[in-house]
Amino acid sequence: MEDLSQYPLELPESDKPMVRFQNVTKRYGALTVLDDLNLDIAEGEMVSIIGPSGSGKTTVLRMLMLERIQGGVIYVDGKPLTHMQQRGRLVQASEKYLRQAREPVGMCFQHFNLFPHMTALQNCMEGPVQVLGMSKKNARERSEELLELVGLIDKKDQHPSRLSGGQQQRVAIARALAMRPKVLLLDEVTSALDPEVIGEVTEVIKGLVSAHNLTIMMVTHQMGFAREISDRVCFFFGGKIEEQGAPADLFDNPQRERTQQFLSAVKSAD
Amino acid sequence: MSYTEFLAEYGPRFLDGLQVTAIQFLLAAVLAVMVSLVMGLGKLSSNPALRWPAVAYIEFFRGSSLLVQLFLLFYVLPLFGLTFDKYVTGFLALGLNLGAYGAELVRGGIQAVPRGQWEAAYSLSMSPAKRMWRIILPQALLNMLPPWGNLIIELLKGTALVALIAVPDLMFEARQINGSTFLSAQSFGTALIMYFVFARFIVTPFMRWLERFMTRKLGRA
Ligand SMILES: Nc1ncnc2c1ncn2[C@@H]1O[C@H](COP(=O)(O)OP(=O)(O)OP(=O)(O)O)[C@@H](O)[C@H]1O
Ligand SMILES: [Mg+2]
């Protein structure tokens, strides 16, 4: 058992990133996917995560939203997410605590995962009404605003099966935003899209970065896009951060050999 | 006696029997749906106190014959002071038995809903109950309607067994009429046709309609 007393119960105002991974380890059975990860993400920061397949990029996001961890503590907005306080000590979070602690986090998936039995508008209203207890009227207003923002207000009464991939992904972004998250996780949100519609989704994301004080963690294979909009890029290799830095530094002047190899491999594939 | 005369004489009794069959069928179907939901969800529960009873239930009712279960309810339970009316015993046995098969359909239908739907619902912080009722079950329902169509027809055929505990259903009337007239071909032939018509022209079209209705409602059209 890990000694949890080394971790603070809450992060102090003076040192309070929006997201902190402290000594985080994630295992699937005997396979250690992420080993002793330490990563801080500031409020309003846009961080891109790049790296080869299987390097643990998706896992970083999933630990915030869907998976339990085997070592370390994750903090969101200064409060522990993976653990809760009990008699002045940190203990493993209960299911209920986890779910509530994750309320400030939103996630969009590679395959959209819209609810097929609901219209675009209903997809967006579901969380506010069912989880936040908002009135239908207010939830509808908020959802319509967001569908407007992603340019799909005219499709609000369509079911996902009637929407293109790019449109579905934009609805999915609106659905996540309807919960007013502080942190938005984007896992390869353009990877399942036809090349000609990728632009409509990246435009929406660019809009989010400039207009909202949203903290975004984005896993992507689109190096050009990552470079254009990120404050920081993290290159993952074998479950560790091999190198990180401002996009211009990391892309133009990578220090580590693996980063150089990866970037030149992606470049030649393009 | 011509077949027309036979029908004129015994037609009303066949119709009375059919009515009893239809009621037994409907009540058993409602019970089966409820049982399958409870047991299907129970079998998927992560809580062993819910899971093991559901597993035991499903194994028991699928692993032994409906006729034996019917007799057990009718003849054995009274020995323990539990007596049901024969009508109640009839649809109870049918519903409990078919519910065990239905539970497997519910389980399969739920498991066929893509993992990503659970994750999307979770990522909106929905509670486990809301995830199930609002997101997963509606989709599972659509997955399982086609096999439910078959199960419901099995249920209809199964109703003929309640004649054996003297519930005056269509089969019971056919046997009675056969016993007094010795016109086996007419007696059982008529019953057969009535079962067939009921299944083919009422139950099956209804299930098809339900499928179309649900598909439209769930926006997959
Ligand atoms: N549910 C799981 N069970 C077992 N192993 C898993 C599971 N999910 C991921 N892994 C393993 O963890 C490692 C990291 O996976 P992850 O999905 O985070 O990689 P990734 O960097 O997102 O890759 P990709 O670019 O292909 O999406 C891989 O070796 C993968 O096989
Ligand atoms: Mg991935």
What would you say this structure looks like, in words?
The complex is a heterodimer of chains A (270) and B (221). Chain A has 270 residues and is an alpha/beta fold. Chain A has a domain at 114-180. Chain A is built from 9 helices and 12 strands. Chain A is globular and about 50 Å long. By secondary structure, chain B is mainly alpha-helical. Chain B is 82% helix and 0% strand. Chain B has 8 helices and no strands. Chain B has helices spanning 3-44, 48-63, 66-76, 86-111, 115-123, 128-158, 170-181, 184-217. In chain B, helix 1 packs across helix 4 and helix 7 runs antiparallel to helix 8 (184-217). The longest helix of chain B is centred in the first third of the chain and has 42 residues, at 3-44. Chain B is flat and about 70 Å long. The relative contact order of chain B is 0.15. The model of chain B has no long low-confidence stretch (mean pLDDT 94). The chains are: A alpha/beta (270), B mainly alpha (221). Chain A binds chain B through residues 65-66, 99-100, 102-103, 105-107, 109, 111, 113-119, 126-127, 130-131, 159-162, 172, 175-176, 179, and chain B through 114, 116-117, 119-127, 130, 134-135, 138-139, 142, 217-221. The complex binds adenosine-5'-triphosphate and magnesium ion. Residues 57-58, 188, 219 of chain A line the site of magnesium ion.
